[in-house]
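To the wet lab folks,

You asked to see what we're planning to order before we commit. Fair enough. Below is the target structure as tokens, and below that is the sequence we designed to fit it. If anything looks off to you, flag it before the synthesis order goes out.
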């Protein structure tokens, strides 16, 4: 079972083992820019925003903004609105 980057496995003897995936790992010991990239890849914009606030760097805000706009997927939005009679 996978939940928030932790994999829980049932092993012999009725025991459980947990493992945190490195793709979901966000820790203070890693640089804030690496954490930001991880959060953006996971589309966790709430935590990414907080990371940008802590970084207080123009590059972080630009990366955050570009990824947020890219993830809006405007083509899909246009298709949906055209089906409902709304045209851009």
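Sequence we intend to order:
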């Amino acid at each position: 079972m996978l939940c928030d980057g932790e994999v829980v496995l049932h092993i012999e003897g009725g025991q459980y083992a947990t493992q945190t995936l490195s793709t979901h790992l966000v820790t203070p010991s890693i640089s804030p820019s690496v954490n930001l990239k991880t959060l953006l890849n996971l589309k966790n914009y709430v935590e990414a925003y907080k990371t940008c606030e802590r970084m207080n760097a123009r590059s972080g805000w630009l990366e955050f903004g570009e990824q947020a706009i890219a993830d809006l997927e405007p083509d899909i939005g246009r298709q949906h609105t055209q089906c409902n009679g709304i045209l851009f």
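Structural context that might help your review: Residues 39 and 47 are 7 Å apart (CA to CA). The longest strand covers residues 6-11.

Thanks,
Computational group
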